[in-house]
Design a protein that fits this description.
The structure is a single chain. The protein is mainly alpha-helical. Helix 1 runs antiparallel to helix 2.
């Protein structure tokens, strides 16, 4: 069954649960539920983009809070239980990194969170740990207003990948 078909045929409660695994913003989920039925994948992805970009930075930050820190090894906490398998797959290029790179990621993550007030968001699918670390370090110099838009665009990419891969 295609992802859009699964969402279209699901009960509201099941569709809500499925959508929350794709994006942790409750307002995004509610808006997506209101847009059902989607009818095809193009409409599903278009609705996702429309709903995402209509949200406020606070809604974006809510979605960001549903992601573990990049490179974080312990994803067993209850907060990440529903999306653990997704985060592990998305961060596969980081998971096998040497301890020194993971330490540098942890240090830069703390700097990022202190500067911007939310976890570093990057669509890590297909990216190596050194590439993610370089991106994180370069984004530390961004203006906060620019950075939230960059992080929101990364979240939109993550959401689209998760919607496409929904089973």
């Amino acid at each position: 069954m295609e992802p859009w078909q699964r969402l279209d045929s699901a009960s509201a409660a099941d569709a809500r649960r499925l959508l929350l695994t794709c994006c942790g913003s409750t307002r995004w989920v509610e808006r997506m539920l209101a847009r059902r039925p989607f009818g095809n994948m193009i409409r599903l992805l278009s609705a996702s983009e429309d709903c995402w970009h209509a949200l406020s930075p606070d809604d974006w930050k809510e979605a960001f809070s549903h992601h573990p820190k990049i490179g974080e090894r312990d994803l067993s906490r209850a907060r990440f239980a529903a999306t653990r398998h997704l985060s592990e797959a998305e961060q596969a290029g980081v998971a096998g990194a040497p301890a020194t790179v993971l330490q540098d990621l942890a240090h830069s993550n703390r700097q990022y969170e202190a500067r911007f007030g939310y976890v570093f968001i990057i669509c890590a699918t297909g990216r190596s740990a050194p590439e993610v670390l370089a991106n994180l370090r370069s984004r530390l110099t961004n203006d906060p207003a620019d950075e939230i838009r960059i992080a929101a665009a990364e979240q939109a990419r993550i959401t689209a990948l998760r919607l496409t891969a929904m089973t």
